[in-house]
Design a protein that fits this description.
Blueprint lengths: L5 H13 L12 H23 L3 H16 L9 H20 L3 H8 L4
Length: 116
């Protein structure tokens, strides 16, 4: 049984994950280091998203933590460029939804009944 919304939320998180490259200052002399740093975080996040899509509860919990961080990021929005603000607002809205949706009875039960 596939959970309704799992594919959609995974796809949205993949797109928002790639939007993480928005914060890289491409004019910086350390652009290689910055891109590698953010690229490593993004790659690790894609691994978590794979396991989320494979219905691992530990990945659901990490997605919940990420959603919480997306909400907290709104605190720093005044210091961001317009493009970063647009990404942050998108992540905030989606993060609020995920904090609610991932804690519904149906979704929690779906992830907790996964095979180890």
């Amino acid at each position: 049984m596939q959970l309704k919304g799992l594919n959609t939320t995974t796809l949205i998180m993949c797109v928002l994950n790639l939007a993480g490259f928005v914060v890289v200052d491409w004019d910086s002399p350390e652009v290689g280091i910055l891109a590698a740093f953010y690229g490593s975080i993004i790659a690790a996040t894609f691994i978590v998203l794979w396991y989320y899509w494979k219905r691992k509860n530990w990945a659901r919990i990490l997605v919940l933590i990420g959603a919480g961080l997306a909400v907290i990021n709104m605190y720093f929005i005044a210091e961001m460029t317009l493009l970063e603000q647009a990404v942050t607002v998108s992540e905030f809205v989606f993060g609020v939804f995920m904090l609610w949706w991932l804690n519904t009875k149906v979704v929690r039960a779906y992830f907790k009944t996964s095979q180890i």
